[in-house]
Amino acid sequence: MKTDIKSMTLAEMTAAMKELGLPGFRAGQIYTWLHRGATSFADMTNLSKDLREKLDERYEITAPQVVRKQESQHDGTVKYLWRLADGNCVETVLMRYHYGNSVCISCEVGCAMGCAFCASTQGGLVRRLKPSEMLDQVLFTALDSGLSISHIVLMGIGEPLDNFDTVMRFLELVNSPQGMNISMRHISLSTCGLVPRIRLLAEKKLQLTLSVSLHAPTDEIRNTIMPVNRAYNVETLLAACRDYYEATGRRISFEYAMIRDVNDSPECARTLLRKLRGLPAHVNLIPLNEVEGSPLHPSSRKTVMQFQKILTDGGVNATVRRTLGGDIDASCGQLRRNYEKNGKKSE
Ligand code: SAH
Fold this sequence. Notes:
By secondary structure, the protein is α/β, with parallel strands linked by helices. It has helices spanning about 10-20, 25-35, 50-60, 130-145, 165-175, 195-205, 220-225, 235-250, 265-275, 300-315, 335-345, and strands at about 5, 60, 65-70, 80-85, 90-95, 100-105, 110, 125-130, 150-155, 185-190, 210-215, 250-260, 280-285, 315-320. Helix 1 (about 10-20) crosses helix 2, helix 6 packs parallel to helix 8 (about 235-250) and helix 9 (about 265-275) runs parallel beside helix 10. It is globular. The mean pLDDT is about 95.
């Protein structure tokens, strides 16, 4: 078994090169090649042939293959379906904003969390990704599109805090000055609410934005759409959010998918308002993305606007998320799911 070299930090690579009897700067050279997307040691032309062969014997370089690529006709959003070395597939979405180009990446193949409205979880969790496989999504999206990436959201397939150590390592890699050097302040991490892990993340005091998928203000409603709420209920979750803010000074962003007749009443808005009082927060209202075969449907535009007004009138910052890529199954999990169901057979 060869070692996955792209999952190594620069410090680890330096130590490994020392063991091979090589000077530390060699590690820096290799690290830079890898983080610019080199897919074989043979490409690393500033290393001797002998060293390249030595590395090739010990290490492997991950590189996903594009299986599907869908481009929105409306807004330039591009969705990639990648095939990993073991044949599993994950999705990445590239979104173009006025402030820069952002990628939404996956951290697991499938998901164990079981949210009722989400396509990613329908087949359960297959496996967690490796740090290199997360980094590759950013790297190869940049290379394929020819665009530079300034922002990352961990909002694709999977639950980031369920793959905690890998995600921490990925953040270190993508943030490193010798690598892609993407600022922590330009990274958002979204969680369904794994409270002990939110507390662990708080201890790291990272400058990223924590996004919490709340989707309901009461246990009564949240229990019906998010199984995680039975382990960590709304009160426990919001207490962890308050402590997270205390520890990091970072305002929390709450995701709230508006589902018709489930969580979209004016009463829900008022309850939410009451529970968020005093917590520096931003609420992102997202009209539910319809998932084929699901009994859940999006709220009407009017209902979303009314809900937003109740929040903003009460002093809570709330915006309605612009939906990008509506014409290309851009809600994460949908492309992989459609491919697993239909696409593979026709290949
Ligand atoms: N597991 C993490 C991140 C992945 S999902 C989490 O739960 O936050 C990214 C966001 O998309 C979450 O807020 C999730 O609840 C939301 N989401 C999933 N399916 C959706 C759908 N059909 N419509 C709208 N938002 C959805």
